Amino acid sequence: MFFQERLRALRKECGETQTQVAVALGLVDRHYQKFESGANLPSFQNIIALADHFQVNADYLLGRTDVREMLPPSEELR
After folding, report:
1. Would you tell me how many other CB atoms lie within 10 Å of the CB of residue 42?
2. What residues contact residue 15 under an 8 Å CB cut-off, 6+ apart?
3. Long-range contacts of 35-42 (CB under 8 A, 24+ apart)
4. pLDDT at res. 62
5. Which sign does the torsion angle of CA 24, 44, 36, 69 carry?
6. Residue 13 scores a pLDDT above 80
7. Comparing 75 with 36, which gets the higher pLDDT?
8. What angle do CA 37, 43, 49 make, to 5 degrees?
9. What is the pTM of this model?
10. Alpha helices of 26-76 — where are they, by DSSP H?
11. In 3-state terms, what secondary structure has residue 62?
12. Which end of the chain has less Cβ packing within 10 Å, N or C?
């Protein structure tokens, strides 16, 4: 599944509009719409904000895994 497809699916699952997600992230509507259409890719900061907003890990959002849960920080990172 491509990033934009997963993003759209998460938004619809939460029952939110594109405008609602854009406002929650502090983005202009059109900017968010371009993420879902695949016209633009989000910045690193926006990927983190999207993952936090939808309460999934960033790898799930990016299509790198099917594990949705946010993982606890590694002991090595502390």
Report:
1. 20
2. none
3. 35/3, 35/4, 35/7, 36/4, 36/7, 36/8, 36/11, 37/4, 38/2, 38/3, 38/4, 41/3
4. 93
5. negative
6. yes
7. 36
8. 90
9. 0.86
10. 29-37, 44-54, 58-61
11. coil
12. C
